[in-house]
Amino acid sequence: MARQRLDGAAGRSILRGVSLALNFYLLDVRPFWLATILVVANTAALTWTWRRSAEASRFSNDTDTGARGFSRAFIPALAISLLFAAAHAWLTQILTIPIDAQRADMLVVVQLGIRRLLQGHTPYTIYRVPWDVTLPYGPVMWAPMIVPFLLHADIRFATIVGALFVPAACALAAVRAARRDLSTATAWLLVCAAIAFNGDLRQFIAIGHTPAYWPLLPLFAWALARERWVAAAIFCGLLIVARTTMVSLTPALLMAVWQRAGAAGAERTRRASFAYVVVALAAAVALPLLPFAVVDLASLKFAFYTSYQNVIKGFVWTSTNWVQNTVGTTGLLLARGWTSAVEPVQIVALLAVSLATWARLRRGDDAVVWSAIGLLAFSMTTLWPVVYLYFDVFLLLVSAALVREWPDTARVWPWWSRSLASAALVLLVVTLATVPMRASIDVGTPAARPWLYAGFSGDERADRDYAWIDGTRAKLLVPSLLRRDATIEMVCEPYLVAGGRQQLTAALNTIVLGTVEIADGWQRVSFRAPARAWQIGGNELELFLASATAPRDAGEGSDTRRLSLAVDRLNVIAR
């Protein structure tokens, strides 16, 4: 009988891990209506089988000590490998894809907002990027990015640390579980791998801003699961400041407080507890925004609400099909022209989830899970259910299971800080091993292609490997581990007609380095790049040419490309 109970607990651990991991990949199912159904079904199944009191499965005393010893060695090694693989893949994303408004404008706005803040102004204003846009997020989201900004590093280092936090916590949970239960450890490794290798998340890292607040999700889950009501309210409020969609977490929180805070006491105690939670929640939302509201309340309101409504309804809905290609109900409604039904459907969905939450909490369900379901309902019915909204939901569900693995103590910070330190340490090691102090790019080879961001034609080979710039402008990405004075040296050859000369101007991260005249033939040209022009991480080197000519127009063949400069190699030489 004991063995059967063990097997049942082990099976539930594996099934829960599979279900949590599966959510991250159901978003890739097509058509989108099918992905919507599968995400709802998988979340419903996960909720149905969730037990409020976690039962940690354990091996019996006759567990083979050799297998136990093997798992204790193998699981930590695999967990560390997963974290390093994720960090390397995500670091590659930010090194080879610069922050570009044409891809996504929010990181551009975050940088501009931080710069305005450090200059003593409110970041909540209109930015031209080149279209008009405002900063629609609270300081809890963008404040972590101030650290790399001040260090003159890519602000997406904060993005990677935030994205690594939950996988690191899963890896630590797997290592801890390996001492007693191989099935639970395997489940956590599965979840860690699902996050680490998710293609949507990997692509999102390059434009990602929301991962900066993801470490708050386990804190909220821990406080709510442990019935630390005031702490849960504070973390919930901070999440709302980070992203307003998080307001959908509050019904489950407040219902749990009302039902359970006075379970062992009088009605008066329950009302007092509820009042404390409401005050804590309101304070956690208001206080971080108060300085900006005092400076300019109208701009804050416009940034958080009005601008989003205007952009989505006035442009995204009318001039694109972006919303139709999303998981959730909004795209299905817009595809049929039922724009007026979007918000009523959201209201009905949230009311239905709230009623279900009230009923299920009375039966002892986990309030964290139902807060995640509320967030899922909001995300699926919002004006534009972009894919990264669902990461918040799925990571909160992972956190709901994860905090059950943390020891039932009064202190959460040791476990939370270990996860954060692990994420930061892994990224530091990967950065030191990956980003060169002095870049050397052999243009024209497959290995160099990711660094040729714009303006280059295909790789060619004659007596050397090289690539032509097609047109008068090109951009290379140059990784750098340090900020110091250096010389950028290029081996290049211009395309000239009738013995003319070419003029080349270079700019590093928009700082002009100089202009040189280039004669015919392969040659070395160099530009002095001062330390102030560099940032830690990826750097954008823009090349501007005075002219470009198609060989066909010059009577030298049928090539219609407008050639200006062939580049063979780029080297960064420290001064």
Outline of this structure?
Helix content is 54%, strand content 14%. The protein has 575 residues and is of the alpha+beta class. A hairpin with a 3-residue loop joins strand 1 (126-128) and strand 2 (132-134).
- CATH topology (fold) name of the domain at 440-574: Jelly Rolls
Shape: globular
Content of β-strand: 5-15%
User: Any guess at the CATH architecture of the domain at 440-574?
Assistant: Sandwich
Topology, element by element:
Elements: H1 2-26, H2 32-48, H3 65-96, H4 106-118, E1 126-128, E2 132-134, H5 139-142, H6 146-150, H7 156-177, H8 182-196, H9 199-205, H10 216-225, H11 229-242, H12 250-260, H13 267-319, H14 329-335, H15 342-362, H16 367-381, H17 387-402, H18 413-434, E3 440-441, E4 452-454, E5 456-461, E6 465-470, E7 473-480, E8 486-494, E9 502-508, E10 511-518, E11 523-529, E12 537-545, E13 563-574
Antiparallel strand pairs: 1-2, 3-13, 4-7, 5-6, 6-13, 7-12, 8-11, 8-13, 9-10, 9-12
Helix pairs in contact: 1-2, 1-8, 3-7, 3-8, 3-18, 7-8, 7-17, 7-18, 10-11, 10-17, 11-13, 12-13, 12-15, 12-16, 15-16, 16-17
Can you describe what's shown?
- With 575 residues, this protein is α+β, with helices and mostly antiparallel strands.
- Among the domains are: 100-153, no CATH class; 440-574, Jelly Rolls (Sandwich), CATH 2.60.120.260.
- 54% of the residues lie in helices and 14% in strands.
- It has 18 helices and 13 strands.
- The chain has helices at 2-26, 32-48, 65-96, 106-118, 139-142, 146-150, 156-177, 182-196, 199-205, 216-225, 229-242, 250-260, 267-319, 329-335, 342-362, 367-381, 387-402, 413-434; strands at residues 126-128, 132-134, 440-441, 452-454, 456-461, 465-470, 473-480, 486-494, 502-508, 511-518, 523-529, 537-545, 563-574.
- The strands form three sheets. Strands 3, 5, 6, 8, 11 and 13 form a six-stranded antiparallel beta sheet that branches. The protein has a five-stranded antiparallel beta sheet with strand order 4-7-12-9-10.
- Strand 9 and strand 10 (511-518) form a beta hairpin.
- Helix 12 (250-260) packs parallel to helix 15.
- The N and C termini lie far apart (73 Å).
- Mean pLDDT is 91; it is low at 1-6 and 52-67.
